[in-house]
Fold each of these.
Amino acid sequence: MHDKIRNYISSNKDKLLSVLSELVSIPSVKGEAEPGAPFGKMPRAALDRMIMFCKEEGFRTELCYDVVGTADLCPDDSFPALGILCHLDVVPAAGQKGWNTDPFTMVEKDGILYGRGVIDDKGPLAASFLAMKCIKDLGIPLKKGVRLIFGTDEENGSGDLDIYLAKDRLPENVFTPDASFPIINIEKGMMRSRFSGKYDGGSIIYFHGGNIPNAVPDSAECIISGISAEQIADAVSGTAENVTFTFEDQNGNYLIKCTGHSAHASTPESGHNAVTALIKLLAALPLEDGAQKDIISGLSEIMPFDENDGEHMGLKCTDERSGALTLVFSIFNMENGSCEGCIDVRFPTCTTLKKVEDAERAALEKAGCTFDSFLGDEPHITDEHSDFIRKLLSVYERCEGEKGKCIAIGGGTYVHNIKGGVAFGAERGDTDYHMHGANEFITVEELLKDAVIYAEAIAEICG
Ligand SMILES: [Zn+2]
């Protein structure tokens, strides 16, 4: 059967590429909500087009609440046993520097496809679609059904799934081809919290650092008064490791800028935090005594420069299956008597949202601040000994010719809140596919291999 599937997929390469090329040509970036299009006109247009593709193949399709589309291939009227969850929305490309081609025109060059969404997640969706078409056209008998599910809001918080799941259920087994091979079965918990503080007077006129809640900030700046150039130069020489500082006289005050290195909040060790570096520098200066100074020294104590494991916040923990907790102080602003900040924590399965909240609250109070609010999710775990995972791994090993395994990650995937869900593809190894970046790509060969893997997974689980 493996050869039959492989031959079918390679002889239907043109179909795969034409579906993908059409999907890429719809710039399905989140837009203003409109009647019938809660996430904007273009995600809705992509949704309608994908439903048409599925209808043309004779799949039973449904448009659900204007936000999700489904296409079923079922032997009977029973509810599908397998769900393949993809998304049609993409992150913006307008104004993104470095594209060598138009992001919304798929271009093939030397066997590589370029375009926004080719790896995230339109390519894997097109491969899953061809996988279903393959099972149908080859007449491979199924005992249970499969449902292709395509959403329109993965990139902005999965509001599409919230709407869908409030009214509909998902198949018992769901995989999403929206991350990496082999299988991601554990996703750390996540807490993004906000805090604030108040003070009167002080040497810092303003502080601005970071603007993305889930990234290591690569820039921060402040203006301070009452401190000399020599004092700043002294402090810089004791702080400037892995970051760069510049400072300039502004009518007797000093503007200090810090440049670090950005990284995703789930992998902070590959960045250098400009906010904590600048706070460390300030804490080393003879600032005017008072609440503002206390906040700066308090924050530098509980979140030292480039400490990524939350140790001084009382959060450090690790477990074998999901790894170590990470903490990123991502945004900090201070001006006119008040300050506010944002902290992103990814935590292993040995702790809970409640414990992280309690520790942060206590530490921030010690630093003279108040814990205000948070958004968060508990860790996601799907049993790696389940029949579902065993079957996916055997398909992976057969198709890729290498040992499959389950992995844990710090980021959240589309199945984070779906019980029993796993991520299965479509990135491979250490390749940087420029996901969310300029010149996003996938190779034609990989896309064809994906379609084979997904077709075999359907046959294995539903056959
Ligand atoms: Zn994605």
Amino acid sequence: MEHVTAQGVEVPAIGLGTWRMTGETCRRAVGEALELGYRHVDTAQMYGNERAVGAAIAAADVDREEVFLTTKLALSNRTAEGVVRSTRASLNRLRTEYVDLLLIHQPHPTVADAETLDAMGKLVDEGLVRHVGVSNFSVDRLQRAREASPAPILTNQVQYHPFWDQTELLDYCRIHDLVLTAYSPLAHGGAIDDDTLDAIGARYGKSGAQVALRWLIQQDGVVAIPKSTSREHLRANLAVFDFALTDREMDAIARPSLVRTAESFLRGRLPF
Ligand SMILES: NC(=O)c1ccc[n+]([C@@H]2O[C@H](COP(=O)([O-])OP(=O)(O)OC[C@H]3O[C@@H](n4cnc5c(N)ncnc54)[C@H](OP(=O)(O)O)[C@@H]3O)[C@@H](O)[C@H]2O)c1
């Protein structure tokens, strides 16, 4: 496993996303991922799966200290009191004394980021949270959050894949030594049957999905958190460190498209 280092913190370049997996499916997928070598797991209060994630980590033959564990504050838990109460409840469900990263899941329409970040900073001081960050923040809001936060902001977790551009944010993250965490790195599944990705993958004996992940992690400062419940896909998504894309291939893969992104998002939600 390779790591991305920012602010002296090492983050495993590939993590396991766990949105829309719950219960036994989630426990099994996280357990298999840890067995296969994943050391980074992304959950959220909103996903309703912290108990399953915690059970899988507790049962795994891997020390808790080796796993980079992220959770995110739900929209309803952003007041100072809500941050502290809900994070303690998350730790309880996750069966751990600390999380490596606590994120603001999305901008709040009324609670000031400063209030939320201040409470998150207190949790860092208490040792319940190692690092703090945000998710779905614009560059401007990220800048203001960095100014307001008593603890350094390690990452902005945002949608990033071949059909969604993040050039401006990525430049900002590199200048200020932040990690860009790419969510929905497979475009919610839309990167799986793409001719360009498949053709490039064929040159290296890799799938289109693997090329999409390689494209992300080959960019300085980017980590990716693909979700999978299939052992075969979990294994494939980790096998992206043994080949490198050329500059020309990197350029050919980036094809920002609102239509492609929206299509993939909707297809990923169909029940069939
Ligand atoms: N902060 C936020 O607001 C936010 C929003 C969205 C997502 N996220 C995080 O990002 C994670 C990933 O995003 P996502 O779940 O939206 O989508 P994704 O990782 O882009 O795509 C997941 C889909 O791709 C399939 N897949 C995975 N690996 C594959 C492979 N090697 N070959 C073929 N298909 C493969 C999965 O099916 P199988 O399960 O069958 O493999 C699943 O249908 C989430 O789980 C969550 O942790 C965060």
